């Protein structure tokens, strides 16, 4: 539910009417245009809206007690949802224009209706109507003191705060909350500091303990064939995610990524729009030409003014020489049985400490497994007959030799067929690895806690972490066919 426009009108005892505040949300208006199609009616200028609204409420032209579009018998008003007729044509109508009035103020808004308006749906079925009325009631309580009365200076002060209030409770036209009832005009909850202007993408200000959390995650994919005529493929994709709880309208934070002397340079770097400046050589490093001698090796500094919600500061790719786990897999049909053997070897550069590590061996387009005689040199094996799946649970460590193996025979002849897959038939099969390694990245990239700089009034606590995860990590049977990916794998 979103708001296309909002108006606040004051009406004094002398029947003088003035528009005290108006706000339009262009992104919501664009959505209204797409949803409305030929029936779309644009929001006119403020003076036109004011005149139409006063006419509909019967507060203008006191000599004209009868207005045809408002007072004829065919018009069935459904308060508080008003119709504003922009022209005699039926389609040029703004509906539903929600209006509440109390004391000297009239508050009105035009919510976005994402349901067909012909025929008019019941107001009780439109979430946008109830949300819009809730927003108007909250703004009414914010602008007026208890009893609906306020002094002109107090009202002017609260109207001046309204742009900042809307950034917090209705960012980009979508109501998230309502103001605290009866909040004083001197409240500093949403007022910007100094002469800094609150940016449109920042929906409020943080109040409380300052903390900055930076999480670096690298994801590795691999396609290993065990075939000299098929090239193994792997790629690494990294993301840096931040959550900054820092006081101030535009606080400054700098996160620095560093590489070890033998680390792989970061490439294809993309940054969040809140990053204020970045070295051009960082952004021009791409993985298209891996032999480029002008590769940037860091440090990679990203100064930014953060939003309140968690966000992805940057992403990158990295070309590492070898995948973390090398594997081989062979299947053979022997005497109505399937003989399987597999070997997994953890590369010496990878820390032998996992959060979890599992190898899944599925068997498609066969009858259900009947007899399973498979042994593993390390870890444990779970047999899922319904899914024709072997789960090799390696656990949190490889063996001391960093090499483990699986071997045995499987018979298929169960009472029901197993799962089907058009890609994997005959000896076309694979092992799929699932693992996560804490405090490790293949590129060697890291975020040191002391390299995170926060320029704010309060000292912030810094939390950093990094981890390596697998995604689409396959080891194909070397004795059967396998799909071949042409070119570089793209995440």
Automatic annotation (TrEMBL):
GO cellular component, as recorded: AP-type membrane coat adaptor complex; cytosol; late endosome membrane; lysosomal membrane
InterPro entries: AP2_Mu_C_sf (IPR036168), AP5M1 (IPR039591), MHD (IPR028565)
Keywords: Membrane, Protein transport, Transport
Amino-acid biosynthesis in keyword set: no
Membrane topology, record value: Peripheral membrane protein
Cell compartments where the protein resides: Late endosome membrane; Lysosome membrane
Transport among keywords: yes
Domain of life, per lineage: Eukaryota
Classification via PROSITE patterns: MHD
Entries under Pfam families matching the protein: Adap_comp_sub (PF00928)
Sequence ranges assigned to domain MHD in this UniProt record: 209-476
Biological process annotations from GO: endosomal transport; protein transport
SUBUNIT field: Probably part of the adaptor protein complex 5 (AP-5) a tetramer composed of AP5B1, AP5M1, AP5S1 and AP5Z1.
Family, as annotated: Belongs to the adaptor complexes medium subunit family.
PANTHER family per the UniProt record, alphabetical: AP-5 COMPLEX SUBUNIT MU-1
Protein name: AP-5 complex subunit mu-1
Organism per entry: Knipowitschia caucasica (Caucasian dwarf goby)
